[in-house]
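Record filed here:
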Amino acid sequence: MKLVIVESPTKAKTIGRFLKSGYKVESSYGHIRDLPKSSLGVDVENNFEPKYVIPRKNQKTVTALKKEAAKADKVILASDEDREGEAISWHLIRALKLDGKDKEGMVERITFHEITKPAIEAALEHPRGINMNLVDAQQARRILDRIVGYKLSPFLWKKIMGKLSAGRVQSAALKLIVEREEEIKKFKPEEYWTVSAVLHKHALEKDSFTAVLNKVGGKALEKLEIKADEAKKISKDLKTAKFSVESVERKEVKRNPLPPFTTSTLQQEASRRLRFSAKQTMRISQSLYERGHITYMRTDSVNLAPEALSAAKKWINENLGENYASSAPRRYKVKSRLAQEAHEAIRPTNVFNESVSDDPREKKLYDLIWRRFVASQLPQAVFDSKNVSVTARGERIYGLKASGSTIKFDGFLKIWPTKFEESNLPLLNSGEELELKEIKPEQHFTEPPARYNDASLIKALEEYGIGRPSTYAPIISLLQDRNYVAKNQDRRFEPTEIGGLINKALSENFPEIVDIGFTAKMEESLDKVAEGRADWRKIIGDFYSDFEPQLEKKYTEVESMKPPVVETDEKCELCGKPMVIKFGRFGKFLACSGFPECKNTKSLSNGNNDTNITCPKCGQGHIVVKKTKKGRIFYGCNRWPDCDYASWKKPEAKTTPAGSKDN
């Protein structure tokens, strides 16, 4: 019997369908070894040697896998093909006491990019050993993040309050959100005006079009140049001016389809089109992958396998016709300098399966992946574009411009529709006189930069090199779960008071930790480890030699940053002492000044802290932070008792209508 070990039960079940008798497929349920929670787990005096343990929750699984491995003729490790998957296989060898058996041919490592019968069979025919470069890169990240988290978090406990956490990547992401908020607060709107003219040909008023002022006296206008008085003066002059067509430019414009999805672009597009959080997107795509419907969903690559290109062309020929079939397969190149694993892009494993699930969210995400893949193999969209320059002669000479475009051939837009408003200008010729119908001066104000949402934050993380695509969802989720940031009614991130305080403490005292450039440079160093071009212990050693003395220095230098306790006129209903305003992880709250003798606490607003998250059960109320009589925090609907929603875990910001299926 040959034992195949994968990470998840769903993946095991799917692979089991493709294997003949003589194979048994089991799951490790993810990592089976990790650094201990109760201590640092890294021997900094012994070249940063990690001290791995088998968590209690995994011991039963390890015992069962040991028994199966002892009975097997061969153990085949089939975890995912990225760094995390490689590390899982490496840990399995040690936990199951299989060291050295790979040299005897009793342990093999296989990888595949999709869970299909041909892919599994091909992987079994081409086993390999453990790639220690990938393992070391994963270990380096884990140990580095453990050192930062376990060393820096106690500093926050002492200087601000307990139960706070710092992290190498999460703190850099928090900094982006806080700095954007500071930009918004400092922003001062500036007024400017635009002037446009509604024109038409003589006796053809129904064919009117709008031209926007872009020149005054032969000089091109800057965006903020026209103020109220000037707009009024120009509008008055234009009302009696003579308008004529100066030139008409016609050209054909082509637009290329977008490449198939990577992890990052899938998360961004699912946020924009489906209003999915990054965490939701990864959870749903993981399910689709493990059931064999899509290729591996953690990838930086836009490559497509030859057989996938052939299948796409066949589907296009059979369903759209020859006009939509490209003369040759369309291939894409990775643009990101940070791209690492040489995988395929995310695509359906069978393009002829246009729908694969009854679950509404899985159905939507699969449809998005399917359409993006097919559209990537369709021809360009072609537009007829027309630019008209208009001259107005009054006291001064003015230039105005009108643009219009229509679709000549939809191409990839047939499968991947985008927002496009056709604006067909009337037939105009150079020198033709025009009549004025209306002058429209409009007031505008410059706007501050927008707060980040899921899509724009992921794009920023990728551009700055903070983390990797597979870490974006956990980063964003962690910041929300710890209440360092919250989503407002527009589904955009705002830093909480505690988030702002943490960023201030770290930025002032450990600027290199939250520095965007430092974080990106560290990611590049980890990439070098994965490629076998750097020693992970040296990378951590170089970091630690600067970090440790700086930390010791700050412990003694930095004064307390704890928010002041403010006394109120309100009396405690339990003991009669004054209530005071304190600051906690979930914001400000009222507490009895008689603490610890009296432990009465309550919120400053309606008894609970509002998270601004729509209730997933009723869809009307907001989720608020509550406490049990024993002080344990839970989450409930503020419409209680009309809605009895309650959960120990903070729910995600609502992205689907109330009553829809929620897995």
User: Anything to note?
Assistant: The chain has five domains: 2-130, 140-187+450-557, 191-256+381-445, 263-376, 566-647. Confidence is low (pLDDT under 50) at residues 654-663. The CA atoms of residues 221 and 338 lie 40 Å apart. The longest strand covers residues 242-255.
